[in-house]
Specification:
Blueprint (H helix, E strand, L loop, with lengths): L1 E3 L7 E8 L6 E8 L12 E6 L2 E4 L21 H6 L9 E2 L9 H5 L4 E6 L5 E12 L2 E10 L8 E10 L3 E7 L4 E5 L4 E2 L5 E2 L9 E8 L4 E8 L2 E8 L5 E7 L12 E9 L2 E10 L1 E3 L4 E3 L5 E9 L3 E8 L2 E8 L8 E6 L2 E6 L2 E5 L2 E2 L2
Antiparallel strand pairs: 1-2, 2-3, 3-4, 4-5, 6-11, 7-8, 8-9, 9-10, 10-20, 11-19, 12-16, 13-15, 14-15, 15-18, 16-17, 17-20, 18-19, 21-22, 23-24, 24-25, 25-28, 26-27, 28-29
């Protein structure tokens, strides 16, 4: 489903991508709407993931104990403004540890992201893309999401392409506020054991303990966690500037007003940077038999072939299949023709994107 926002339906919107049904349903929510008045958060291009009846990638929501007098008289807690509305509490990019629109509600109300292209009516490949070039002065953000259900697979994989363009150097943080237990990473990290530091000083960062951190120079990082009986792996292409933080809410919260939730935060520095990630849903854990099946990621390759103002081409190898996603970043009309060099040949397509599986068009 897609919902438009604004009185005339022209101020962005919300898209919901779905795969499966009933208890086996996977739902991805992509928010590119307007601020939402006093109830709004600074969360442009935010995503949330639900699977098997559980929250998997969440944002905090609001800090409140309505009607419980002992907690701030039963009203919204002050942390609603100081943490839960801030950008770092959501699954979207924070630039220079400053929230979108510098946390200014009136300014945020004047702008909204723009839907670029999408197709949610093909069950095998659902796509949605939106951009925002107003949340930060001099920084353009674009996010494209692909929900891909491969042949003979019960669960889809999610390809997340988050691009940032700027004229100056910036720090970019992309969190995944995950629900579950860390199982494995493909990189070594330094865990805090007898003392923890705070991630930052303001805009929500002051509430985050750094539980572990790492510099990752592998072709891609992998982080696997378990929620209920299902395994989830987030793989992200890395460069020489990539840092990883495992954080937990609770710093500077002496009244225990906030839930102690976890996040996996990727940090890159530079002018033009992209966070290109694949989220896999895989395996199963049986509490009755106390056995795990397919608990390891099946992704063995993830790389960017092209990523510039005109085109992005990503190659993914998962479960023995090679996926190639080519995306136009400028000319996105349905009838626009494109040509891009790939694997020594010309890749031709019409429309904003094309997906190949083992060299054949897949839709």
């Amino acid at each position: 489903m897609e919902f438009t926002d604004g009185a005339k339906g022209d101020k962005g919107g919300v898209s919901i991508l779905r795969s499966g049904k009933d208890e086996d349903l996977t739902s991805l929510i992509f928010k590119y709407s307007s601020h939402g008045m006093a109830h709004g958060h600074f969360d442009k291009l935010n995503i949330n993931l639900y699977d098997n009846g559980h929250e998997i990638i969440q944002d905090y929501g609001a800090a409140r104990f309505i009607g419980i007098e002992q907690k701030w008289g039963g009203r919204y807690l002050p942390e609603t403004k100081t943490y839960t509305q801030q950008t770092i509490a959501h699954n979207t990019v924070t630039v220079d540890e400053t929230s979108h629109y510098n946390g200014n509600e009136a300014l945020s109300e004047e702008h909204h992201p723009v839907r670029i292209f999408g197709n949610i009516h093909e069950p095998k490949v659902q796509v949605i893309a939106a951009k925002d070039d107003q949340a930060y002065k001099g920084v353009a953000m674009q996010r494209s999401l692909y929900m891909i259900t491969l042949p003979d697979e019960r669960k889809p994989i999610l390809l997340d392409i988050f691009q940032l363009k700027a004229g100056n150097e910036h720090q970019y943080d992309l969190p995944f506020n995950y629900c579950g237990t860390l199982i494995q990473t493909n990189f070594k990290y330094q865990a805090a054991q007898d003392k923890m530091n705070v991630l930052g000083k303001k805009n929500g960062y002051q509430f985050l303990w750094k539980e572990a951190e790492a510099m990752v120079k592998l072709p891609f990082s992998q982080f696997t966690f378990l929620q209920d009986k299902q395994f989830y792996t987030i793989s992200t292409i890395c460069d020489d500037s990539t840092q990883v933080f495992f954080t937990r809410i609770g710093a500077n919260d002496p009244n225990f007003n906030l839930r102690r939730e976890s996040a996996y935060i990727l940090r890159k520095n530079g002018t033009n940077r992209s966070f290109i990630s694949v989220l896999e849903i895989h395996g199963n854990y049986s509490t009755e038999a106390e056995t795990a099946s397919n608990s390891y990621s099946r992704l063995t390759g993830l790389k960017t072939i092209t990523d510039n103002e005109e085109y992005t081409l990503v190659q993914v190898t998962v479960n023995g299949k090679q996926l190639v996603v080519a995306q136009a970043n400028k000319q996105v009309a349905p009838d626009a023709a494109h040509q891009l060099k790939w694997n020594g040949t010309d890749l031709n397509w019409t429309g904003p994107y094309i997906l190949l599986v083992d060299g054949k068009k897949y839709n």
